[in-house]
Amino acid sequence: MSNVLLSSDSNELHERVLEASDGACVALAVGDVLESAPADLIARAGQSSLPDVVVLDATDNPEHALGLAARFDLELPGTGVVLIGDPDALAIAALRVGARDVLPPDVDADLLRSTLERVHAAVRVRRGAAGDNAPHTIAAVPAKVITVLSPKGGAGKTTIATNLAVGLARTAPGSTVLVDLDVQFGDVATALGLEPEFTLEDVVHGAALRDPIALKTHLSLHDSGLSVVCAPESPVAADSVTPDQVGALLSMLAMQFRYVVVDTAAGLEPRTLAALDQTTDPVLLTTFDVTGARGLRKEVDTLRELGMLNNARQVLLNFADSKSGLSVSDVEATIRTRVDITVPFSRAVTSSLNTGTPLVLQRPRDPVARQLGQLIVHFSGIRASGSRR
């Protein structure tokens, strides 16, 4: 049975959760919980490893409970959150912050048991726990899995992903890995000037998914210190890479790197959805045109319905041009959410791709590089130094 951490002042609920979890439950009073950081909360409960499920009593203070659930989804994505409260009032908000379910205060032990088992199973998949049943310690969790998404091709995903990954790698040696998940036509290797010995196909079919040392020997290394999993050389190899393998790979990488950046194919194909199930920070990309904005709106709506869009998302508007006839507010009205970073059009991007040198290295003062620098600082809190002119 799953390991459960309960936040509630109700002795009756505590007894029901104890019964449903076969006694594998640690309880803390609500007052000790809602203002805490997730890692501090787990330490206060005397836990040396992550709980599989956190049950938060949201009957008296639903807003604070939702806020804490959002922090768990962002900071400790290897734990599933269940809220206790009014399902009709909380269901949509809970979905948006990454909670797995909302149960009424009078829920019986049988429904609690089945819910805990279901959430625990989902957590195991998210952790990529195939063949690895060991408890995940708090020290293994801080990784950010940053997935770059766009509903259509040609939006600049690879430019964003490669420059972001290089920028993060320069903030701390050995901190970052980039995965090219466009398995048919990925060109991360070209954008970085790499000629990989191993590709994604080799990684998922060898010992690398079981052995961290073998995994690191299959990574390509960029001059910036960035580690890279490049896409297969042939589109034919795409069918041999399964969503389950993608999930397991990202889970293992998240245990070894502070930042895992994922470049994806256009749209929401199964491997992208597998990556999103591991993602802590989605980066949503749209172009400065009506079709791009409408496509992103559909993608955002779909991700919300699937419960795969959390509050950590960043929305980027690429190829911004004041002469296009659109404004940023027009795009925001179409996608129904805020644009966080606006990236202008620049011919320097094409030059950087052609030469295999990311823009943040080749021309760090270019307006595009400066805007991407904001994204790098957002995730790292550190400005990279030593930029080459």
Low-confidence stretches: 129-141, 385-389
Structural class by SSE content: alpha/beta
Going across the biggest sheet, name each strand in turn: 8-9-7-10-6-11-12-13
Specify the CATH class of the largest domain: Alpha Beta
Protein name: P-loop NTPase
GO molecular function: ATP binding; ATP hydrolysis activity
Domain CobQ/CobB/MinD/ParA nucleotide binding: 146-358
Pfam families: CbiA
Describe this structure in words.
The chain has 389 residues and is α/β, with parallel strands linked by helices. Helices cover 41% and strands 15% of the residues. The protein has 16 helices and 13 strands. It has helices spanning 11-20, 38-44, 62-75, 87-96, 109-126, 157-171, 188-191, 200-205, 212-217, 243-254, 270-276, 290-306, 328-335, 347-355, 359-362, 367-380; strands at 4-7, 25-28, 53-57, 80-84, 101-103, 144-149, 176-180, 220-221, 227-229, 259-263, 281-287, 314-320, 341-344. Strand 12 (314-320), helix 13 and strand 13 (341-344) form a beta-alpha-beta unit.
Brief account:
The protein has 389 residues and is α/β, with parallel strands linked by helices. It contains 16 helices and 13 strands.
Search tags:
ATP hydrolysis activity, disordered C terminus, alpha/beta, 389 residues, Rossmann fold, eight-stranded mixed beta sheet, five-stranded parallel beta sheet
List strands and helices in order, with pairings.
Elements lengths: L3 E4 L3 H10 L4 E4 L9 H7 L8 E5 L4 H14 L4 E5 L2 H10 L4 E3 L5 H18 L17 E6 L7 H15 L4 E5 L7 H4 L8 H6 L6 H6 L2 E2 L5 E3 L13 H12 L4 E5 L6 H7 L4 E7 L2 H17 L7 E7 L7 H8 L5 E4 L2 H9 L3 H4 L4 H14 L9
Parallel strand pairs: 1-2, 1-3, 3-4, 4-5, 6-10, 6-11, 7-9, 7-10, 11-12, 12-13
Antiparallel strand pairs: 8-9
Helix pairs in contact: 1-5, 3-4, 6-16, 10-11, 12-13
